[in-house]
Amino acid sequence: MVKKNFIINLAFLLFLNLLVKPFWIFGIERNVQNIVGAEEFGFYFTLFNFSLILQIILDLGTTNYNNRNIAQHSHMLSKYFSNIVSLKLLLAVAYAIISLGLALAIGYDIRQMSVLGVLIANQFLASFVLYLRSNISGLQHFKTDSILSVLDRLIMIIICGILIWGNVSSEPFRIEWFVYSQTASYLITAFVAFVLVLRKTRFFSIKFNFKFYAVYLKQSLPYALLILLMAFYNRIDSIMLERLLPDGMKESGIYAQSFRILDAFSMIAYLFSVLLMPMFARMLQKKEPVEGIIKVASLLLIIPAIILAAACVVFNKELMDLMYVAHVETSATILSLLMIGFVGICGTYIFGSLLTANGSLKQLNIMAACGMVFNISLNLILIPEFRATGAAITSVTTQLLTMLAQMLIAVYILKLRLNLSLIARILIFAPLALGIAWGSSELIDNWLYAMPTAMALSFMLAFAMRIFTLSSVGRLLKPAITAENNDREEQDFDK
């Protein structure tokens, strides 16, 4: 039953996101960068990551804690909802003051401050949407949450599409318009999500209960610290590029070209954690074994990640040349490095979700703190010498090491049974997939045929090595194919 629900909801979630988010990233965001140029987009990209790192002040772990808590105790929604909404409003004020204060301290100019101000508002709205969605997914209404996960991007596509191709203005497209379109889309999505959650609560009123805040934040702060530490080693690269190099905005823009592809696939990988975290939480509460879901998630996520990374390493220049008009050579090298790190990101979404659901925050925070110190230290060494490529080297090293650390922590704490044979086959499979991609590039002249051929052959190799087997795929898909829609509560919610 758990595998059935996981696969059905994952398929629906992937379907919606593959319809919307790739077009947002490659159709809208990429076009915006080509229109405004690397330096101007680097200006935005640096400020966006600055606002994102400090976004944890908006949340202080309430979203992850709430997701786990509602998944295990759904009756608490009505009790918590009013108090947490008022708490998030207070946190928004604190976030704005701290963010703008730090921006002034590091020397941002008037234009940077004005754009940052809008991005701060956007981050509040995005954080509020995530909190509202955590209630919906915590109640196991995954289909409703899936729709909300793409609503903001769908609205952004419509607004930006009109601004880019609608000839609504004689002025050239400005990066500020891109930021304003995000504000409008987040506002609409937040309103829709708020109404949906409101329907599941007995009452709602804005009230400031400081005793509740103290108790709740004490429980959620470990989650906040984890998110903050991970945000540092995931997002600080572009900020360090902009601050450490004389032409830092340009280098940040070049880095953003490759990071965009990583970010696109990371969004898909993130969807696994959206489903896995509440599932793990409920299974652990009931003392059910989790190895089966870990194996399913690993096969569905890590194997495709290895195949995709191998293809991006071999066909890096072709991909960058297809997407961009400048700085192709440098961004191609960066893409190869970042996509190897994508395998580590996928592993983190599986084992990090498991450890978070288990409440193993102390161990995760120690790991993340070590990752942050390592990342910043290596960036300080490599960025002055190798510029954006140095930041990419730091990123891939950090992602792989932190994935390995989380896997070992999960095995130790939860006494997981390791399938050593499967792990060995995956480790052998990775270089073979890279070899297949290289061989395809040598034998087939047109890379548009060579790349999908290489990926198809790699999947065939996975079956040949019995990483995947027809019987195992059948066992995974059969429950999804024969499943009946027996979740009456979700049907009522979605009406």
Written description of the protein model:
The protein is mostly helical and 495 residues long. The protein has one domain. The protein is 86% helix and 0% strand. It has 18 helices and no strands. The protein has helices at residues 2-36, 38-53, 56-59, 62-72, 77-105, 110-138, 142-165, 175-198, 210-244, 248-285, 291-314, 316-323, 328-358, 361-414, 420-443, 447-464, 470-482, 488-494. Helix 2 (38-53) packs across helix 6.
Strand tally is 0
Q: What does the radius of gyration come to?
A: 22 Å
- Main beta sheet: none
Measured by DSSP, the beta-strand proportion falls in: under 5%
Helix content: over 70%
Which residues form runs of ≥5 with pLDDT under 50? 475-495
What is the string of helix and strand elements?
Answer: HHHHHHHHHHHHHHHHHH
Q: Calculate the mean pLDDT score and round it.
A: 82
Please outline the helices and strands:
Elements: H1 2-36, H2 38-53, H3 56-59, H4 62-72, H5 77-105, H6 110-138, H7 142-165, H8 175-198, H9 210-244, H10 248-285, H11 291-314, H12 316-323, H13 328-358, H14 361-414, H15 420-443, H16 447-464, H17 470-482, H18 488-494
Helix pairs in contact: 1-2, 1-7, 1-10, 1-17, 2-6, 2-9, 2-10, 4-6, 4-9, 4-10, 5-6, 6-7, 6-8, 7-8, 9-10, 9-14, 10-13, 10-14, 11-13, 11-15, 11-16, 12-13, 13-14, 15-16
Name the descriptors.
disordered C terminus, mainly alpha, 495 residues
What's a quick, concise take on this entry?
This protein has 495 residues and is mainly α.
